[in-house]
């Protein structure tokens, strides 16, 4: 039986050069402007809270643009991703920016063993991470294991409502499961979520959706205290091509009445203790 991690890792590994070169990741702006932050981190600054001086870990960091943004806000960052080429690029970016970030190549479910238990003041997870994991309860247990007493979890993720949809020419169809399933949703698509002329040979991915109730319950079951959930009508990528319009901040909303769709959410929780 093919391991979903092998399938997905091959897909991500091949797309790293295209993502680094894409204007969507703004690598050149990071290098040119010492104050530049990723659009994802900038969007959630009102909810993120103070991170300066705190020890943080970014799970599933990809090429590290959100990681270095948190470091620029003063956090002492570690980061982890299962793609070696992605971590290589993330490490290179941090070094070029003069930031000391501790990067690791590892599966997210192994994060406690790799990074150390109860070692972090906050765990950060960004857009498009949880859909690659088959078990949201196991993920929440990892987060709880990484946090010190009093430490907090911060997630911004694609809304499970959006993940159920497939764009048509003039409308979106509800096609995929809202709730976590035992078997993956298998996609075979040749492109990626950034504009590129690159042609890819690894096109299959295995993904899972996780309902909001499942995610919040998993966080609570892991011993964390749920603090807040904010739903947004926008996403930092074109989740429904042909049906969404980009604003000046790089966020995409339904062109026709965006109030109809929750596109992303921000979730916050903390581990009890001092």
Automatic annotation (TrEMBL):
Keywords: Methyltransferase, Transferase. The keyword Methyltransferase applies. InterPro entries: Methyltransf_25, SAM-dependent_MTases_sf. One of its GO terms (molecular function) is methyltransferase activity. One of its GO terms (biological process) is methylation. SUPFAM superfamilies: S-adenosyl-L-methionine-dependent methyltransferases. Pfam families: Methyltransf_25. Gene3D superfamilies: Vaccinia Virus protein VP39. Signal peptide: none annotated. This is SAM-dependent methyltransferase. It comes from Kribbella shirazensis.
